[in-house]
Write a structure and sequence with these properties.
globular, two-stranded antiparallel sheet, alpha/beta, single chain, 13 helices
Length: 389
């Protein structure tokens, strides 16, 4: 059974807050749900499927369905970090195609900024039941130093430079200046990035994403329901998912799971990387973007540094407009699973609802991609390709 066109994204909403000292995580989920349903022109009573990941409080979907007072016949709590919510869109399309639900509500929320979480620099607590803990956690790995290993290896193998990585932040800042909700709205230069303090060599402070509160929500529906609504129709035409780990000791830091999830999505969508007009790429760090752009096929492996340089990711200027809301590097990163914002901005672009200064002309085909976990150890990848109908 082909899932190309089996479901549509009818509603999308991004919470405007970046610091929510007066709101609980559950309330942020609820406000995002209200916003996405209103955007779709649907009500709570229309929802019969609910999706969330590990950012949801309590027992995930069980707690949230009760809190939101939903009556559903299908739930999903798949959690693969930052790629979870792209995976949820794909799983919602699969559930709709299988007749498990008609209207799927997907919500994310988090308060890492208000809670003072040092997401990237604090050693991650491990459980001794995890098979990797005994071998890695005694060394105190943090998110940023594991990603820094990937950057170091890319530089060693391909001659990639800190200045090339910096162009990714520069592009994000050019877009964020037009987003009134973005945490960092000042346009930065390559020099600004490379002169910012080193956090984990070779990654500088401005190579890292922001830490924010907030959230977002999506509504995925059957084609017949999408046709009955008054919103522009955004069709899901391709999806892929893949894990990547240590490969039994044959560690290779030069590529990510995007190599596999992207190939699957493009095959289902029957389009090529060169057909994509806009790309939302998960940007926990600048190196995350560089590796994913290569693995998704937008350029050859090892040529990512040259591809992203000189403004090639800036809307209206470059070959591949990316993260036109400012992305995680400048706009927001509301939880360790912030990939939902990648889908939301792709929907805006396809609807023609992005800020006029960054709206991609004739944007009829968009890609969103997320990475969850640690690029240098083990992670999940999820890719979505969407089309304006």
């Amino acid at each position: 059974m082909s899932l190309n066109g089996a479901a549509y994204i009818a509603g999308a909403y991004e919470h405007p807050t970046r610091k929510a000292t007066d709101k609980s995580v559950a309330l942020l989920h609820a406000e995002c749900a209200i916003g996405a349903l209103a955007d779709a022109g649907l009500s709570k009573s229309d929802v019969d499927g609910y999706f969330c990941a590990g950012d949801a409080p309590g027992m995930g979907p069980i707690s949230m369905v009760d809190y939101l007072n939903l009556k559903v016949r299908h739930m999903d709590a798949t959690d693969i970090g930052g790629s979870s919510y792209l995976l949820h869109v794909a799983h919602a399309a699969e559930a709709i195609a299988a007749g498990r639900c008609n209207v799927a509500l997907i919500t994310l929320a988090g308060r890492p900024r208000s809670e003072g979480m040092a997401t990237g620099t604090t050693p991650r607590a491990g459980n001794v039941a995890q098979p990797d803990v005994q071998f890695e956690y005694p060394y105190g790995p943090t998110v940023v130093n594991v990603y820094a290993m990937v950057a170091q290896r890319h530089m060693h193998e391909y001659g990639t430079t800190s200045e090339q990585l910096a162009w990714i932040k520069v592009a994000a800042s050019h877009h964020a200046q037009h987003n009134p909700h973005a945490m960092l709205r000042d346009v930065v230069t390559v020099e600004d990035v490379v002169k910012s303090p080193i956090v984990a060599s070779p990654l500088h402070r401005l190579d890292c994403c922001v830490i924010s509160d907030g959230g977002g929500a999506l509504v995925v529906v059957r084609p017949e329901i999408a046709a009955s609504l008054k919103r522009p129709k955004v069709k899901i035409i391709g999806m892929g998912e893949a894990p990547k780990g240590q490969l039994g000791g044959a560690v290779d830091l030069t590529y990510s799971g995007a190599r596999f999830s992207g190939a699957a999505a493009f095959e289902m969508a029957k389009v090529k990387p060169g057909d994509i007009k806009y790309a939302s790429i998960y940007d926990s760090f600048t190196i995350t973007v560089l590796v994913q752009i290569e693995d998704l096929g937008f350029c050859e492996k090892g040529k990512g540094g040259a591809f992203v340089a000189d403004g090639n990711l800036i809307s209206g200027v470059g070959k591949l407009p990316f993260n036109t809301d400012g992305g995680g590097l400048c706009n927001n990163h509301p939880a360790n699973r912030g990939g939902i914002t990648k889908v939301i901005e792709a929907v805006r672009q396809l609807r023609g609802e992005a800020h006029p200064k960054v709206q991609v002309a004739n944007c009829n085909l968009a890609l969103a991609h997320g990475t969850g976990g640690l690029l240098g150890t083990r992670h999940g990848s999820a890719t979505l390709i969407m089309e304006r109908e």
